[in-house]
Structure formats: C-alpha cells, structure tokens
Amino acid sequence: MPTPKKRNRKAGLVPARKQPLFRELQATLKREDFANCLYLTGNDRADRLRDMMLDPTYDHLSFGQLCSRAGLSAGDVTRLYCQRQALIGQILMAQHLPQIMEDVAISALNRDEPCSQCEGAGNLNGTRCISCGGAGQVRVMGDIEAIRLVLKVHGLIR
Fold it and tell me: What backbone torsions phi and psi does residue 38 show, to the nearest 5 degrees?
C-alpha cells in the first residue's frame, strides 16, 4: 500500500516551489526593488519578508520560500506590490493636479471671441451685424461642466 503524501501544515496550501506565480514574480522583480516596495506597508508579514529579503542569511532561499516563511501567498505578494505601485502612480499623477486644476478654471472662464456671423468685421454687406451689435466680438460663456467643477471644488455648490 503506498504511503500517503505529506500535506502542508495548513491544509490545502501548495508549497511555494510549486506555485508558478512565485517564479514569475522572482523573474520579473529585482529582489532589492521588491523589498523596498514592501517598506511601510503596515503589514507585519510584509515587514518580515522585507527583512528576510535584505538579510544575506536568506540569500540561499528562493523568493517563494521566503514568502512561505513570512506567511504570504503569491496573491498576497501581488496585491502588496500592486497597492504600492498604485500609490506611487497617484503621487506622480498628483504632481500634475495644479496644472489640471488651472486648466479647468481657465475653461470655466467666459471669453470674447470673433463673431461667427460677420467673422469679426462688425458688419455684413455694409449693414451692422445683428449678432454682435457691430462690435465684431461676442461673449461666450465658459464650459458649464468646468464651471460646476470649480464651484464644487470650492464648496460653493454640491
């Protein structure tokens, strides 16, 4: 009669060496870069993994083995990495907020434009243009959505 296979202590867990996602993560990410990505996650297991990744004592262990020792699955590791990358992306994106906000405010402004009827001449066939009253310019309202957004950002409307 064949002997039963040893099961992992936590029933149902596949050993790290058999999870292809760990190998893919290890091949994709530099060990040091990933360790730095785990910094300040607020996750004790991630902190443990980071410490092991930076400790030369654990250099002989694969990434998957380190994750297993830290109690992190490949999915956990992927989520931690994605969360960190999303935060970095938000920080980079936020650097452009002042310009975007200014652009929206400028779009909200009313402006004078050449009259489309008389093309800025003020008259049509020698007769004063009715659309612009002979001024050659018409006042155009700013973008209504931009106006709403500016007012909403400043708490003037809901």
Answer: -85, -10
